[in-house]
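Recall the central idea of this unit: under ordinary conditions, the amino acid sequence of a chain determines the structure it adopts. In this exercise we apply that idea directly, starting from the sequence alone.
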Amino acid sequence: MLKPFQSLQEGPWTTSGIDVQYRIECIDNVAHLYFQCTSSDSDWKHNLDFMVKPYKNMKETWFAHRGFVTLWHSVRDEILTKLKDFPTVRVYGYSLGAALATLAYEDLKFHGKSVKGDVYASPRVIWMPSERVQYIYN
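Accordingly, the structure predicted from this sequence is:
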């Protein structure tokens, strides 16, 4: 658990989308996706945004933090393309990076990937307005 956390403190980072820093490493045919923590004024602006419905035409409605959704969607297609040949992905994040890792986890799982993750000091990312709404991933 210490090694992934330490890896979140190191670069090099790819900066893409709306000032999102991430890194992908391949270890034993498993993709490891790391998101950097809050590190700029731009990051703080997105940290202080509010809830939004993340997808159109949702079967069960839930909400996510708009700032984090905006950042994730700004790099989503690029990251999903880079991960397309990996059946297994591990996601990691700290602070803002933990929020992005949470959204990446949900999206990757939805697209059939085997996903595991470790997040540290994560802010609230998702709000489910009903007890009947449950996301259970094995």
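Helices lie at 2-7, 41-47, 66-83, 96-110.
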